Amino acid sequence: MASELELLKSNRGKLVETILNVKPFLDRLLQHGEIVKDEYDTVVAEKTPQDKARALLDLVAAKGRGAFIHFRQHLKKDYPEVEEVLHRCAAHNLRYKLYCEQCGMLLCRDCRTEDHKDHSISSIVADADVIRRDVTAFMRDNRKLLKKFKTSDEEEGRQKLLFDIEMRKNALKAMFIAKIEREFEWCRNQLGASKVDMSEVASISSIASTESNLSSSDGPDIEPAQSRKAKTWRRRRPHPYLRENQKDLGTQLTASRSPSPEGFHPPPPVVPVPPSYRSVDVVTVIDRRRASNGCVVS
């Protein structure tokens, strides 16, 4: 925690000037149990935003490493341009740009001249600087080409311009993936192949190629919902009053019944018959009519 305290002390002025609202920091600390409600109220009771920021920094320094980590995480969320100062070398308050292969530790330029003069040193920002420069050049060239295209009336160069931009994009992506793969291989070698089994870990290049294949390939043909709905309405459904469907309906009713116990034979299913096919007792109807007219029915 000594290094964290040194960083808070060395960059106190910049943090006090930057942090204008302390309540989100206090809410996070209170939520994770790093402070109590009384300490929350004490910081909020300060009059000016600068006094509140000073009280917050003093509280974080007094609470220890857990409070410092939560403070730094929320600082990265709300003030990413300032969060970098809490990742510096605590002894010299400078950015880490070097790595000592012999000691296995990050260094700033002053650390190298003091204690690591004869050690094997590698840069951790050289690749980042190259990527930053190339990305900047890619964006700058794109805007220049688009500006020229907008001022001209030629439409035939549209496809050629898009092809050129895509080629430079693919080259930039390949360079970035290659650098990330080298860093991953270095980390795997440091861990040791016998200690960690990396057989199930997909490489970044394979993931990128999968993404490109998925984006370029056509997706499955999906039938529109409207078409499916129309087909559903056009489907012919069996009607119980049609003779051609009475046999199928009886079969469905029989199949839907639960299995009967042994020795028991269920009655045949009752199939509804349309009124036009019901048998009518004509004599009964005539007798009823005679009775209604006052005639004696024998």
Automatic annotation (TrEMBL):
A Gene Ontology biological process term: regulation of apoptotic process
Keyword annotations of the record: Metal-binding, Zinc, Zinc-finger
UniProt biased composition (Pro residues): 264-275
Domain CARD: 1-77
Keyword Metal-binding on entry: yes
Signal sequence segment: none
Domain B box-type, first and last residues per copy: 84-124
Composition skew (Polar residues), residue ranges: 209-218, 248-257
Biased composition, class Basic residues, residue ranges: 228-240
One GO MF term: death domain binding
InterPro entries referenced in this protein's UniProt entry, alphabetically: CARD, CRADD, DEATH-like_dom_sf, Znf_B-box
Region (Disordered): 209-276
Pfam families (UniProt xref): CARD
Name under which the protein is recorded: B box-type domain-containing protein
Organism: Branchiostoma floridae (Florida lancelet)
